[in-house]
Amino acid sequence: MTLPTPDVTRGPVRETSLEAPCPVCGRAPLVLRSLDLDLPYFGEALQTTLLCLACGYHHGDLLLTRHREALRITLRVVGPEHRSARVARSSSGTVRIPELGATLEPGPQAEAFITNVEGVLRKFLDVVQGQEAVAETPGARRRLRSVRERMEAMIEGREPFTFILEDPTGNSDVIQDDVVRETLTPEEAARLKSSETVFDLADLARSDEEE
Ligand SMILES: [Zn+2]
Q1: Per the count of CB atoms within 10 A, which of 22, 71, 105, 171 is most buried?
Q2: What distance in angstroms lies between residue 15's CA and the mean position of ligand 1's atoms?
Q3: What is d(CA 26, CA 205) in angstroms, rounded to the nearest whole number?
Q4: CATH code where residue 55 lies
């Protein structure tokens, strides 16, 4: 996760050694670093990072302390002010662009990020470009190319779209005057956690079985 500016931090970094060994290398116990933040537009937040000092594995998360309810945030993106709208996505937030059929869902590797709507689209674009490069059939490559071209049109403002961010923990937000916020019902929030995913599918399915 990239912090917007260093002056949003409040108080010192707290560091705790955990009993659990690193899930990647197993050589060292994980370290938990946490830091209170006061983010412009989003308010008070807690940044946490799990860290392995042996191999460099890290997993960051962000908790906005202002919202607690399961939320759906919808923004119709038609102008530059919408593409530059600030987005805080916790590791439990799901981003959807229905016009593309694209979904960026939380998996065990999902990291929190603060960016804007255009930045989220660029994350989608990176994934699609990667898939296009390794596509195994001409049909798959053609389909991915057409998705990529539409994403580029959206990033450049040539195609309007709908930006949806859903978070069963309520720890994600989009800041813009035209945003529509809805509280999710418990059923919707539960479905969100178990819905199909484009990325990290195997691990997401496994964690659902354990619940
Ligand atoms: Zn490690």
Answers
A1: 171
A2: 17
A3: 24
A4: 2.20.25
How big is the chain, counted in residues?
Answer: 211
List C-alpha distances in Å: 84 to 58, 68, 132, 185: 28, 25, 27, 29
Verify that 118 and 174 share a domain, yes or no.
yes
In angstroms, what is the span from residue 30 Cα to ligand 1's centroid?
8
C-alpha 41/C-alpha 146 separation (Å) is 35
DSSP-assigned beta bridge partners for residue 32: 16, 50
Ligand 1 centroid – CA 28 distance (Å)? 6
Residues linked to residue 115 through DSSP beta bridges, in sequence order:
87
- Tell me: do 122 and 45 sit in the same domain: no
Task: List the alpha helices (DSSP H) in the chain.
Answer: 80-83, 117-133, 138-155, 186-194, 201-210
CATH code of the domain containing 190: 2.60.120.1040
Distance CA 109, CA 94 (A): 13
Both tokens of residue 89?
Answer: 């996505």
The string of pLDDT tens digits covering residues 57-111 is 988 888 877 656 888 999 999 999 999 999 988 878 888 898 887 777 766 556 6
d(C-alpha 103, C-alpha 98), whole Å: 8
Hey, what's the torsion of the CAs at 121, 117, 45, 11, to 10 degrees?
90
pLDDT digits (tens, 9 = 90+) for 1-18: 454 455 677 778 899 999
Residue with tokens 């049109």: 153
Q: Which amino acid is at 117?
A: V
